[in-house]
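User: Structure tokens for this complex, please. No commentary.
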Amino acid sequence: NAGVTQTPKFQVLKTGQSMTLQCAQDMNHEYMSWYRQDPGMGLRLIHYSVGAGITDQGEVPNGYNVSRSTTEDFPLRLLSAAPSQTSVYFCASSVGLGYNEQFFGPGTRLTVL
Amino acid sequence: AQSVTQLGSHVSVSEGALVLLRCNYSSSVPPYLFWYVQYPNQGLQLLLKYTSAATLVKGINGFEAEFKKSETSFHLTKPSAHMSDAAEYFCAVSVPGGGADGLTFGKGTHLIIQP
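Assistant:
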């Protein structure tokens, strides 16, 4: 099992550019989430999905879109990048909610100039 | 809604000394509690979790945590720190029946180990 994979590992964008952060898991997990990590802020939930075709907003969804066409993949789209979106982005998956462990990917470090 | 507070953004201990990382939570129902560790340039991984069974929970790498309902705390301890324990530690809380947006992370504590 590869677990949760994310690409790319690093990315530099100019303000206004768009891009997609890829996330895939091979554990057949129904639940997937995107977080951003900023110094002193912990992890904040951007969007999440409870299964293919179902997505919902988290705490900080503005400027991001998601879709879930398959169980395995959960891409995060930045529509028009802004410097405030400079962050480290983590994708996570789990078999269920509540007491279940979240499995995290290695992260994507994004810089927006 | 639930919340979690980690006391101390940075904690420094000497190698071989006791490690104590503090976490207090707020929840209107009995919670599930987690500690995750993040090593430099890596994702988070689970250290241990409390799910209403034993109040003293043992995790990986010699860490343990005790759930104290009266104090609404879930502090993380390790008797003897090792250089390899240097990392960021996150406490998290979720509630039974809560959605994916019901998992709340603390702001993290950076553990520094001095030789």
